Amino acid sequence: MSKIFVKRSVLLKAVVDESLKKELMNQLQDNQKKIDMEIERLKYQSNKLLIESPMDIRESMAIRKRVEEEKRDGELLKDQILQKVKEVNSLDLGSIYPIGVIEGLAELKVGENLWNKVNNCEIIIKDGIIEEIHDQ
This protein's superkingdom (predicted)? Predict the structure, then answer.
C-alpha cells in the first residue's frame, strides 16, 4: 500500500497550574517591556534625526507621522497584552489552555481522509510532560 509523510500543524495545549500562569505572565511582561523599549527608541531616534539632519518641513512632518503611527501600533500591542494578562489571570486551575503550535508529521495512506489526518492533532502537556495525544 502506498503511503507518504506530510508536515502538519499540531496544536499544543497545557493543563493550567500556578507555574504555567506565572510563566505566561512573565512572557507577557517581557513582551510589554520590549514594546516600551522600542517606543522609547523610536522617540529618541526621531528626535535625534530631527535635530541633527537638515530637512524641510514636509520631511519633518513625515518623520513625525511615521513615529506616531509606530507608537500607536505599539500602544495597540500593549492593549492586546493587557487583555491577554486578564485572560491568563482568569484561567481556572486544571483547565486546558492553548499555548502554541508545533510542526509534526502525518502518515497518509490511500483511502484515508486527508483532512482528518492533517487537521486533527493536539498534544496536552502538564509541566512540560506529555499527558495526552489526540490524533484524528
Answer: Bacteria
3-state secondary structure of 136: coil
Nearest by Cα to 125 from 53, 19, 9: 19
- Residue 4 near residue 115, CB atoms below 8 Å: no
Segment 78-133, tens digit of pLDDT:
999 999 999 999 999 999 999 999 999 999 999 888 898 888 899 999 999 999 99
H or E stretch at 37? helix 18-52
User: pTM above the 0.85 mark?
Assistant: no
Query: What does residue 106 show for φ and ψ, rounded to 5 degrees?
Result: -125, 135
Bridge partners of 132, per DSSP, are 124
Summarised one tens digit per residue, pLDDT across range 10-54 is 999 999 999 999 999 999 999 999 999 988 888 888 777 777 777
Sheet of 121-126: strand order equals 96-109, 3-15, 121-126, 129-135
Write out pLDDT tens, residues 6-20: 999 999 999 999 999
